Amino acid sequence: MPLIPEEPQIHESAQGPRATPASGRTAPTPRPVPGPRPAAPPRPGRPGPVRPAPPVQRAPRDGVAAKPESSGPATPAAATQTSATPQVQLIPASAEGALDAAEEAVDLLLDSGRAPGEVLVITTGEQHPWATHELSFGETSYWAQHDARDDVFYADAAVVGRATSRPVVVVALNGGPDTVAAAALPLALGRAGALLIVCGDPQQINAVLGAGV
């Protein structure tokens, strides 16, 4: 009886090597690998009076399919371990390129199926343009959007203690004193339910969070 050749099996490749730190944006920023999530619905518009469009508005890209779920249901024990110990991903970037790296990380998270309300972005230096724009309408309106949890929320490291936990936290070490990063990173780790992504100088990050990242 002739043998039927087996079909080649395709295995997911492991995460590629990390890019080396570089000044500016001379090399593509390595993308994080978020865990598989179900596809998220399009981001809802904000109710109330129409405001001028913010400088940067995050939204899932059109025509991009969500990352399919891995085969087989996750066991309750595995889900508990993920929520108890968030995964930490480091994206090497200079202070000048950290915010751009964080933006790319958010884009990939949304493209992979993360809901916008699951993502919190923290900056240690200059505020994200979205935060600056929304704060121009007052802190009450700004924090109301945080509490609504229907969009990506951007916060300065100085106020991260007021932010509540979200499944994914992205930190951009885009400047500011070292003491700010030293205080913000442990808080960000505590706010991350499943994944913490830190964009910045690897030596600085490892010094605060430990070499295990």
Question: Any overview of this molecule?
Answer:
With about 210 residues, the chain is α/β, with parallel strands linked by helices. It is about 30% helix and about 15% strand. The protein is built from six helices and five strands; from the N terminus they run αβαβααββαβα. It has helices at about 75-85, 100-110, 130-135, 140-150, 180-190, 200-210, and strands spanning about 85-90, 120-125, 155, 165-170, 190-200. The protein has a five-stranded parallel sheet with strand order 1-5-4-2-3, sandwiched between helices. The model is unreliable at about 10-25, about 35-55 and about 60-85 (pLDDT under 50).
Task: Sum up the structure in keywords.
single chain, alpha/beta, 29% helix, globular
Lay out the secondary structure.
Blueprint: H1 76-84, E1 87-92, H2 98-111, E2 119-123, H3 129-135, H4 139-148, E3 153-156, E4 166-172, H5 178-191, E5 192-200, H6 202-209
Parallel strand pairs: 1-5, 2-3, 2-4, 4-5
Helix pairs in contact: 5-6
N-to-C CA distance: 54 Å
What's the total helix number?
6
Can you list the strand order of the major beta sheet?
1-5-4-2-3
Low-confidence stretches: 10-27, 36-53, 59-83
Helix proportion: 25-40%
Q: How many beta-strand elements?
A: 5
Shape: globular
- H and E string: HEHEHHEEHEH
* Category from helices, strands and their pairing: alpha/beta
Instruction: Name the beta content range.
Output: 5-15%
Mean pLDDT across the residues is: 74
Largest sheet: 5 strands, parallel
Radius of gyration: 19 Å
